[in-house]
């Protein structure tokens, strides 16, 4: 089991993360204009998917409710819960077997993901080494996520197509069970914790790239999403590529609202955070669904 999300050790002043070869020996690259694909076979990630969520959803039901759903058969309900628990545990390990380029694609396109429904695209400028969560978050966010635990932290940073904005997107692979994740998700949403500035995620900067000056003071917009059905927290935080500080950061939900006038809203930084979080949630989801499909096919053989 990895270090808990609640570890608040300050980030070490060590060498910055490698721009690309962090997960293997693919040649590093420095700019957003020329991403070098990682060598086939290198692995990294996991996510959420409709078919698997159905199985997990059954497992989250109480015994009586599950029994009713499965025709009143307690044995079937117990089997469904066991299957859901195994699927939930298996989802934690999918990141080991999926290529980095699948989970954090070199180029991401968001259809109607920009202001006014415009298409938007982002180019990856760096992938951080997979790690535990010690020192990865500001203290308040570390404490808020601590109940979920941290098996692994996966992160990448992107630049928008105009080279004006940069966004770090991350995935925390949790150690908590499904009920705990669902409970914290509900608490997070009902208490509107996603709008609190002290709960902004930290960015990851890569020297020699457009994100070189992307630090805590440059954070402009963000989103944090806790899955209620799978062991993942997906987040994204955006800022300007010219390293200008931002004094009035705004959560993505507010920065993408109609008539929003904040700096983040006017620059489309809320759309960057929201769009990349959406895209990475989908790629991780596809990875888990594919793994579930392979497992089902293997069982039938």
Automatic annotation (TrEMBL):
Domain of life: Bacteria
Biased composition (Low complexity): 20-36
Biased composition (Pro residues): 9-19
Region of interest (Disordered), ranges: 1-38
Protein name: Uncharacterized protein
Source species of the chain: Streptantibioticus cattleyicolor (strain ATCC 35852 / DSM 46488 / JCM 4925 / NBRC 14057 / NRRL 8057) (Streptomyces cattleya)
